[in-house]
Description:
The complex is a heterotetramer, with two copies of chain A and two copies of chain C. Chain A is an alpha/beta fold.
Amino acid sequence: xxxxxxxxxxxxxxxxxxxxxxxxxxxxxxxxxxxxxxxxxxxxxxxxxxxxxxxxxxxxxxxxxxxxxxxxxxxxxxxxxxxxxxxxxxxxxxxxxxxxxxxxxxxxxxxxxxxxxxxxxxxxxxxxxxxxxxxxxxxxxxxxxxxxxxxxxxxxxxxxxxxxxxxxxxxxxxxxxxxxxxxxxxxxxxxxxxxxxxxxxxxxxxxxxxxxxxxxxxxxxxxxxxxxxxxxxxxxxxxxxxxxxxxxxxxxxxxxxxxxxxxxxxxxxxxxxxxxxxxxxxxxxxxxxxxxxxxxxxxxxxxxxxxxxxxxxxxxxxxxxxxxxxxxxxxxxxxxxxxxxxxxxxxxxxxxxxxxxxxxxxxxxxxxxxxxxxxxxxxxxxxxxxxxxxxxxxxxxxxxxxxxxxxxxxxxxxxxxxxxxxxxxxxxxxxxxxxxxxxxxxxxxxxxxxxxxxxxxxxxxxxxxxxxxxxxxxxxxxxx
Amino acid sequence: xxxxxxxxxxxxxxxxxxxxxxxxxxxxxxxxxxxxxxxxxxxxxxxxxxxxxxxxxxxxxxxxxxxxxxxxxxxxxxxxxxxxxxxxxxxxxxxxxxxxxxxxxxxxxxxxxxxxxxxxxxxxxxxxxxxxxxxxxxxxxxxxxxxxxxxxxxxxxxxxxxxxxxxxxxxxxxxxxxxxxxxxxxxxxxxxxxxxxxxxxxxxxxxxxxxxxxxxxxxxxxxxxxxxxxxxxxxxxxxxxxxxxxxxxxxxxxxxxxxxxxxxxxxxxxxxxxxxxxxxxxxxxxxxxxxxxxxxxxxxxxxxxxxxxxxxxxxxxxxxxxxxxxxxxxxxxxxxxxxxxxxxxxxxxxxxxxxxxxxxxxxxxxxxxxxxxxxxxxxxxxxxxxxxxxxxxxxxxxxxxxxxxxxxxxxxxxxxxxxxxxxxxxxxxxxxxxxxxxxxxxxxxxxxxxxxxxxxxxxxxxxxxxxxxxxxxxxxxxxx
Amino acid sequence: xxxxxxxxxxxxxxxxxxxxxxxxxxxxxxxxxxxxxxxxxxxxxxxxxxxxxxxxxxxxxxxxxxxxxxxxxxxxxxxxxxxxxxxxxxxxxxxxxxxxxxxxxxxxxxxxxxxxxxxxxxxxxxxxxxxxxxxxxxxxxxxxxxxxxxxxxxxxxxxxxxxxxxxxxxxxxxxxxxxxxxxxxxxxxxxxxxxxxxxxxxxxxxxxxxxxxxxxxxxxxxxxxxxxxxxxxxxxxxxxxxxxxxxxxxxxxxxxxxxxxxxxxxxxxxxxxxxxxxxxxxxxxxxxxxxxxxxxxxxxxxxxxxxxxxxxxxxxxxxxxxxxxxxxxxxxxxxxxxxxxxxxxxxxxxxxxxxxxxxxxxxxxxxxxxxxxxxxxxxxxxxxxxxxxxxxxxxxxxxxxxxxxxxxxxxxxxxxxxxxxxxxxxxxxxxxxxxxxxx
Amino acid sequence: xxxxxxxxxxxxxxxxxxxxxxxxxxxxxxxxxxxxxxxxxxxxxxxxxxxxxxxxxxxxxxxxxxxxxxxxxxxxxxxxxxxxxxxxxxxxxxxxxxxxxxxxxxxxxxxxxxxxxxxxxxxxxxxxxxxxxxxxxxxxxxxxxxxxxxxxxxxxxxxxxxxxxxxxxxxxxxxxxxxxxxxxxxxxxxxxxxxxxxxxxxxxxxxxxxxxxxxxxxxxxxxxxxxxxxxxxxxxxxxxxxxxxxxxxxxxxxxxxxxxxxxxxxxxxxxxxxxxxxxxxxxxxxxxxxxxxxxxxxxxxxxxxxxxxxxxxxxxxxxxxxxxxxxxxxxxxxxxxxxxxxxxxxxxxxxxxxxxxxxxxxxxxxxxxxxxxxxxxxxxxxxxxxxxxxxxxxxxxxxxxxxxxxxxxxxxxxxxxxxxxxxxxxxxxxxxxxxxxxx
Lengths: 480, 480, 439, 439
């Protein structure tokens, strides 16, 4: 039942104190005064509580169980982070408060910025972008500004491998670039010949996810870096998969000029049903002046905001970014520290390889061999044999109480799962997942219809997404 | 899966700061030092979070839906109460802190005491008892102390109607009294003749729930009061059902000498899977000196604890009672106030009568006519016809997403439900409940086995309680 | 061993063995080892971390609600306790994008209801399930207009929130979309004459605030009347005001965007808030962002699912309507819970009390000789001449526990000694009188 | 109209009509109307209420954990954040007694696991799923012993927590159960000679603390050796200490009770805490309180359910083993979550750090000439002679932000100028040194 159907005219769920101010007549032109009451819920407090409590019960989440979405790094979200982010001193401050009254917040941001620079090997960083894709846009705008500042106006192209996240080409386009997609080599990595062919004086930037979405490390990264830089272009690091490299190497060390991070992936901030995340962007020295405004500086013992950066790409969103998310990431980095961060990388890679090994007998690995934090499996053979698709297996997984991996991505593999366990999952959880997957493959062979019609044990059965988009219903249809 | 099965030797879920103190060797006789590690869970933080998150998902609760347990007053538990009760200034104070450092807490208790006196019409009150039954024990001990203080040592009996809560006779027994149960009259109320017969100089107290557990007001209450007092006994009010009388009359006004309240019923504090509750006890002037120690007093602008009450029954529990629960009740009374409290009584009675009216066509009312906050329905006829019992109907209700009412109580009715909707439920909820009940009655007639084997849609199916008590398993059986 | 990482030594051994390698190092084939240690402290326990961070939080000054007279895009309103209780449910917080709809009905239904609510408030036909903030929502609205009619000139009121203007510039520049600012009139509304003159064949859209950055209520009817059919009408609105002000949809707005923070989200030092984004159904395939639609499952039971994903980056890649992926869904939930709790009556009361309080303050200031800068109708914010060196007074007011009206020169230097005052339902007569003591 | 009460005027009319009456008054047949109004203020909105109550909360002084040196039954320990996050889940908080087991498996399993944990810690065979507090748990244990062997004399150590003694008196008096106190020896342990002499045919049970109220560790082995078989051995214990101290069950204790607050429950000004109660399986049918057992459902799936309810008041009424009905189940959940989080290693570390800190303080005090009153082995509390007018010093220490060792005379007047000091893992070397500055 929707909240609109629970609504009853005249019921209330609010109370407000009196402010002791007499009612003013509206001094607004009559035609600008609202006539019709919006059809919003009229419900009691109990109604609200039960409605959202029951909705929450219909959600799978990391707190409920394994959530192996590839490239999403659905690690455990520590509760101390939540506690810290909801301290009054953080939630109740206004972005325009006098600077001397928000020194704690600025200090936190300044320190976070420096910690992230250290972790990425970059020279400066902006916390303003609100999400990963937003960080990408910011980063590519910086690349654009860089070339323009040098008068290098013909660089209108961005190279993106075909294994890249969909946001990469989209962000490049939003930054005004034409996108050149290059094919991966047979080993799932960038084909250096392809890259060579694509690189020229019109190329502004190569966007790379490393490890890439197949979970493979671009082992020629130093070569790639040299090729890109020799061509006068910049090298961009999509930080979605940084988790794998923690404690081992840094984008800056590999030659990247620009990097965006996802605080909601590597740094454990919750995914919030789709956001808010946070997508800080770090750059090497030669690009610092192009970072968004304002920058946070520390001067004479005080933290300040500097808007005076004439070559900056400008503001990429209002104010300073998703501050509450920064508090969570800050808490996390303080909690993990140098030793903890190193342990994360190791265990994330260990988990992925262990699970890969368990699964390869069931669902072949697209690019066999050692992987990083994730790997891609395909059920193409099973699909041919039984008609059971990756989608069906995904739905059947839900019946067994685990979330499905990322499906049908990257596009260069078919009927595939992209599986990222993260370091916070135990061996037992991985064993259990492999066992379930095996069970489903057996079901698919013995009784394909069973799997094709899954799920059964979920709040709703399989939903019709085709009609949903063909004859879209965008909002509740009120009666009358 | 139990937490013990998730456990893995060597896994940890804790962190502790260093206190910088060197390790001391244990200066304890060797045989007093623990040898075996207790078999407690060794799990990560994620394990703990998921375990308890999944357990919570297996619980029905007031926040999920209708919970019409008769005499339990499962009203909505406001969230502002929870917020207030968890303020550091309330949770982190020690009961032995210097009195000048806990003036806020004492003030809250003092004011709550006075508010509850006003609501019950009593002269003084102790907040110490931890639960309703604990309040009963306290109240009966006060009755005992009263008679003994007058040298009236032969009063060894307590009268309890057969419709009383089971705690009444149990509490009376714990206070050292013999219990005389008197039968209800045909109208479901105290039979004055029976009472007359039972009253004599050996009787110390009559324990009365008014309205009683049938949801009926003891209309002869003034007469009863006179009879009891004329016999030299005291009149005790079981406050479990006070919700019905809010805004209309007060135990003190009806002639009761002692009253216990359940803050977790009338005053909206949550039931916490079985507790903690709080069972304050109020008394009339002549009994004040017997109240438990310490009493909270206000003197020269300061709140103090007074232990110097020679005739007190003593301490009934450690310290001052369930303070956190008091904070919730205090918040609630402040929120409802005089006007809100009056509205509660009216709407609780309206809801019960409306639901009674809807249900009487389906499941006959044991004592027809206007009820107070609850009523008792019986399915005896259905049971005879179909073999389907009240228990089966209760289980089937769970399948439809509502909690079952109290069953098989009071003992004077058979195959019954005791139904208390409370004032926080909407007409829609009541209509829906009646509709479900009707559906189940139809199912019972058409397909009794369906109902007898319910529930089906619950985390477990019907549980074997007979074997559970015959061959009890009290704790997890560890392997090896 | 770490409490967030469950592996025991024994398990690590077993896992390496299963993989067929002898050490963790063997897993890093061809990965250069460029660092041994980060220049960071080692990890600390939660109690120590908590202590440090609580200390940081206390280095920020939190003002009593009633003493806050600042708005300018981020607003203080009463937030019912249950908004926090319910939106903090970890089954919401720790879920991700509802890729698996069957186990995400909580997310999906909540967002579907949110979309409905935003349509009701704005008078529009479709809403997406959130943007990052009001500023990026406007920027995306402008780019959407360009996609719809192919024109690249935007006439935008100079009285739009300057942060929104700035962000829109950042977004528009690389796509060669030109923002042409229209000045404000003496009443603080857009200069209709200039607007009229600047409309031409290259114009894609006209953007105004409602209320605008100065709190002034633009006359959407008159503006719309100036616009040829093909020019899109983009309105940047403030959702609380929409319980009093006629819905922009009623005036023929094509896209209505804004910042939803006022609807139950704490200020959070400016983020996260939430951008809302509504438009007409005919434009939906050009709209950025996620949309939740109603559908049925195989048994005919109602359910919700992400729809029209072919607009989005994960399907369309470079040809998507936007690059947005992670959005601000959790804040959309907060909005929905807040709106559900307040209801139409509560929202209206909030709007009216805000109106009353700000008009009371304005009147009292005028009685004291402080003149309003603009005399157009305003909702709950107004600009006034606060006198010599107001900026110093503003800093000093914080010592009295007052977060006073914003010295606008901080944001717009040309408004020297002008202050942008804001009142909402949290400001009482008493607190306003107290503020007035300093004027 | 109230936000907690959903009835609209229209619905009230409809409902009255359905009932067949014309006004609410008609429902109150024979109920006297004795009040028109309570002498209480009318209801207030949540924001006003919150403001008032936050103000009250601030009239209490909260000390920094490290500066708290008081115990005496209520202890400060580090409580991991998740204990609060998880135990606050409203599906736990707003559920009641698991009468309908099939929809209460969360409650039931958590309590079953709690029972197991308490058995493990105490070395006993069965635990109930909670009592109100340590004091009432002891009182009920005594009454249980009387039920078991029919004797009415209890030999109880005078070094038991005085609140427990007082409550036990209250419970025992009306049932003619006689508590005979055994004095303490010079080491602070029970006087074995006196105990031995007082044991007779009328003795039902012997009660000692472990550690006792003075923090001293009683020698359970020696005490047990004195007891004839029929006399029950009741041990009041402190659960944190049991990670270091041998489990009472190993010494033949028949009932082990205590206060569980230290296991993750905030001090709450003394309540709610939780009484734990464990015994031997052979006595289980005489045990008070709720017990959860494991069972199976009709399909053979494991599940949990309340068992042995025939002991309880709602079935047995006057013949029940106790009148307890509402208990402290939510705190049992807190205990279980805390224990799960800390694990055996964490608990042991807490115990050992507490031991270390208190012994460090004791040694330093001795170095300064402050003598311990008793020289028996202690866990984390000890009594020392704090010098002239310590009580004044104690009050003054609060101004330095220190909640100093308890002047025992407040509780036991005979201990003039003696202070009961307590350290746990929250006290650091630095905070102890700071405390010592005042001695």
